[in-house]
Automatic annotation (TrEMBL):
<dbReference type="GO" id="GO:0034220">
    <property type="term" value="P:monoatomic ion transmembrane transport"/>
</dbReference>
<feature type="domain" description="Potassium channel">
    <location>
        <begin position="74"/>
        <end position="155"/>
    </location>
</feature>
<dbReference type="Pfam" id="PF07885">
    <property type="entry name" value="Ion_trans_2"/>
</dbReference>
<keyword id="KW-0472">Membrane</keyword>
<keyword id="KW-1133">Transmembrane helix</keyword>
<keyword id="KW-0812">Transmembrane</keyword>
<feature type="transmembrane region" description="Helical">
    <location>
        <begin position="107"/>
        <end position="125"/>
    </location>
</feature>
<protein>
    <submittedName>
        <fullName>Potassium channel family protein</fullName>
    </submittedName>
</protein>
<keyword id="KW-0406">Ion transport</keyword>
<keyword id="KW-0407">Ion channel</keyword>
<feature type="transmembrane region" description="Helical">
    <location>
        <begin position="131"/>
        <end position="159"/>
    </location>
</feature>
<feature type="transmembrane region" description="Helical">
    <location>
        <begin position="63"/>
        <end position="86"/>
    </location>
</feature>
<keyword id="KW-0813">Transport</keyword>
<dbReference type="InterPro" id="IPR013099">
    <property type="entry name" value="K_chnl_dom"/>
</dbReference>
């Protein structure tokens, strides 16, 4: 039994430390514990909201999740230390009476050691337990420091995400409106002139997702500023420009390439750092009645060969829109 408790404590400690390091320092997405918990936590809140993105309860999910992640790290470290101490009856003694402590006292001792309080009413009995206590004390100190340093860039990334949502909302409230607003009667120059800037913003947003996946769960309940909806609309506008708009009036393919590559990068990052199951069925195409009235839509669609990357990105956005509590009709 002692060996089992000792082994379990060591495994939980190593697993927790690895998760903390991967989440806060790797810049390659969250650790296994953090990423799985985040997805499950968001799914729970989404069900509680009735899958309605306009419910304000979803706007509280992000910061509650952030706090919960830190509490889980503390709980796991605490639990692992208690298991180690419980593996040996005389691991901790009363500093006054020198008598061995019970389980409750060991839980108490483990807690104040991790929090680096060092009250001193209970002490480790042997040098080996003193070293282990020091390791956990340093781990607790590092956890506190890394948590604070992790929160600051996360909050900065959330602000950037919201700024991107607001900025994209200025382009239009639908894919068709984005294109109509940028049509000057001759070409879509007003759109293509913004492509490099939009692509850079999207790449920056993607890399923030890779470094801090938790920002994916910071929800904006206002439809007009929801970044997922705005990105989906922008991508649908890109799709229309490439395949639905008359070739004589559509922008040069090379002009659209930076934005297309930025969206490919976004899809790769989101697929890597989240645990979502992509909906296989492609979403319905955007409304184009106004574009047809302007004579911008091609009539013969039989020879259209759509890039597979673009189709996969459309499927991803349909999945993201639904998982954010919205309907594809809103796109």
């Amino acid at each position: 039994m002692e060996i089992i408790l000792l082994s379990l404590g060591v495994l939980i400690y190593l697993f927790t430390v690895l998760d903390i390091v991967q989440t806060t320092l790797s810049m390659q997405g969250g650790g296994l514990i953090t990423s799985r918990f985040s997805h499950g936590f968001w799914t729970l809140f989404l069900k509680m909201s009735g899958r309605d993105g306009k419910k304000k309860i979803l706007s509280h999910t992000g910061y509650i999740l952030l706090i919960s992640i830190v509490l889980i790290w503390v709980f796991l470290l605490w639990s692992s230390f208690v298991l180690l101490l419980a593996s040996h009856e005389g691991s901790v003694i009363n500093s006054t009476t020198k008598e061995a402590t019970g389980l409750l006292e060991k839980i108490y001792y483990a807690g104040f050691t991790i929090s680096t309080l060092g009250v001193g009413d209970y002490i480790p009995a042997l040098n080996s337990w003193r070293i282990i206590s020091a390791i956990y004390s340093f781990t607790g100190l590092i956890l506190l420091t890394m948590s604070v340093t992790y929160f600051i860039p996360v909050l900065s990334a959330i602000i950037e995400q919201r700024k991107l949502g607001i900025r994209l909302s200025n382009l239009g409230n639908s894919p068709e409106e984005i294109l109509v607003n940028s049509w000057n009667g001759k070409d879509f120059r007003e759109f293509t002139e913004k492509i490099n800037d939009l692509s850079e913003s999207l790449v920056h947003h993607s890399q923030n997702h890779r470094a801090y996946p938790v920002i994916h769960y910071f929800h904006n309940w206002k439809e007009k500023n929801a970044v997922i909806l705005q990105l989906a609309r922008l991508h649908e506008a890109l799709y229309l420009l490439k395949y639905e708009i008359d070739k004589e009036k559509s922008p040069n393919e090379m002009d659209l390439k930076p934005l297309e590559i930025a969206f490919q990068n976004y899809r790769e990052v989101i697929t890597e750092v989240t645990h979502i199951k992509i909906i296989e069925e492609a979403p319905p195409l955007a409304e184009t009645s106004i574009l047809k009235e302007l004579g911008l839509i091609i009539e013969d669609r039989s020879n259209i060969e759509v890039n597979e990357e673009l189709i996969n990105t459309r499927r991803l956005f349909q999945t993201l829109v639904r998982q954010d509590g919205w309907s594809w009709k809103m796109v």
